[in-house]
Amino acid sequence: MKIHLTNVFVDDQEKALRFYTDVLGFVKKHDIPMGADRWLTVVSPEDPDGTELLLEPSGHPAVLPYKTALVQDGIPAASFAVDDVQAEFDRLRGLGVHFTQEPLEMGPVTTAVLDDTCGNLIQIAHSK
């Protein structure tokens, strides 16, 4: 068994697509109209057949309180692996990305947390 699909709830799918592709570097996998919304997924360019991230609309009534609570408590909605947190932090900050946590070493793991501009905190991490 392996993870095939996971999601983040986003306030605006088009804005999320631009951020997750143009800024974070993912590539669009599926973009299927579904009424007012879309089945919109992105993948790592390094693994185009790997785990998909669904940029899911935040329309369900439970989503806003959930996302608000996570952000208020500083809890990331997702965590993405990178080869070097400091290098990725520098690259993303250079693109204007706002971080709520700068790179932090915690034993063998280094993390940083960014705002995805769509209502979520996202962690980037690498292990030594």
The assigned structural class equals alpha/beta
Q: Helix count?
A: 3
The largest sheet is: 4 strands, mixed
Radius of gyration: 15 Å
Commentary on this structure:
With about 130 residues, the protein is α/β, with parallel strands linked by helices. The chain is about 25% helix and about 40% strand. The protein contains three helices and eight strands; from the N terminus they run E-H-E-E-E-H-E-H-E-E-E. It has a four-stranded mixed beta sheet with strand order 1-4-3-2, covered by helices on one side. It has a four-stranded mixed beta sheet with strand order 5-8-7-6. The longest helix has 11 residues, at about 15-25. It is globular, with a radius of gyration of 15 Å.
Task: Produce a short descriptive summary.
It contains three helices and eight strands, in the order βαβββαβαβββ. With 128 residues, the protein is of the alpha/beta class.
Keywords:
four-stranded mixed beta sheet; alpha/beta; 3 helices; 8 strands; 128 residues
Write the layout of secondary structure elements.
Blueprint: E1 5-10, H1 13-23, E2 27-34, E3 37-43, E4 52-57, H2 63-72, E5 78-81, H3 85-94, E6 99-106, E7 109-115, E8 121-127
Parallel strand pairs: 1-4, 5-8
Antiparallel strand pairs: 2-3, 3-4, 6-7, 7-8
